[in-house]
Amino acid sequence: MICFDLEGPLSPQDNAYEVMSLSETGRLVFEALSEYDDFLALENRPGYEPGDTLKLIVPFLSYYGITEYDIGRVSEGAVLVSGMKDVVEWLRSLGERVRIISTSYEQHAHSVGRQLGVDSGDIASTRLVLGELTFDSDVREDLRQIEKKILDEGLSSDVTAMLDELYFGSGLFQQIGVEVVGGQRKVDALLRFAAEVGEDISSVVAIGDSITDYKMLREVSGAGGLAIAFNANKYCLPYADVAVATLDGRAVLPIIEAFKSGGRGGALQKAAELESDPAELESGYGYLLEMEIRPVYSVIAENKDLKEILAVHRDMRMRVRGEAGKLG
Q1: Torsion of CA 147, 151, 155, 161, to 10 degrees
Q2: Which of 43, 109, 132, 162 is deepest in the core (most CB within 10 A)?
Q3: What is the pLDDT of residue 62?
Q4: Domains and CATH numbers, the chain
Q5: Phi and psi, residue 171, nearest 5°
Q6: In terms of pLDDT, which residue wins out, 321 or 239?
Q7: pTM for the complete prediction?
């Protein structure tokens, strides 16, 4: 079974970021909330999981008058990462089970899934029904003041304190009632998918790129499966077995192929060969040589200096994802 994160590995669009950008001030507000999300996740705030940004923005979506229709409309403009449709088709031609585990709202995850031919039942994502949610005038006034402060200061200490009071002091975070599929909930989804088909985690490949994925990668790697960091950021990279920096998703094929034939050891050996001798790309992987920029492979090990690897991934990430690449 191959489990993909969606935003980053499969599609460059950060749907929530683009949806918030429908409002004139929404982009800056989202960036501040995304940074706040990283802070909460790294702080291990009780009850908070990486990716809960998509819960934090719900009151702002209501405040801006954004609807589920808008989420779907923005998603219609989402493209796939180059080569990823070929990857999914190749995997399925071999009888491999493909699953998508995404923090994205269902409207977006299912839209991208349709492009890839992945059934909605094989996708775990965040259910959001905006019409069921209402916020009183006091909350809306708080949102207005926070918005103004963010526009003036970004995520300052004052803004952080205001957000803490809004979401956790008043209990709004729990009242929102949206369960985002991020962090541990991605692990839970992966375990559920594996249990449904009776597959051991040691035979699973997980592919992710950000802070919402690190627990999923850690779980799979720890169970003897294969964790791949794809154009990853600093929060995700240390938890992978193999890192692939590329403009074209087909770059993961040699690693997955080696895992299928030789298990985790085979995948690590292939990645090491491709890392130390790029000429290996000429041995049966001609399609990689045709890419605008050749992929960079790295074997991630404890105590390995990740600075240079991160720099390469940061560059590829920004090339593929644009402004969304800077988000946690």
Answers
A1: -40
A2: 109
A3: 94
A4: 23-65+133-177 (1.10.3870.10), 182-326 (3.40.50)
A5: 85, 10
A6: 239
A7: 0.92
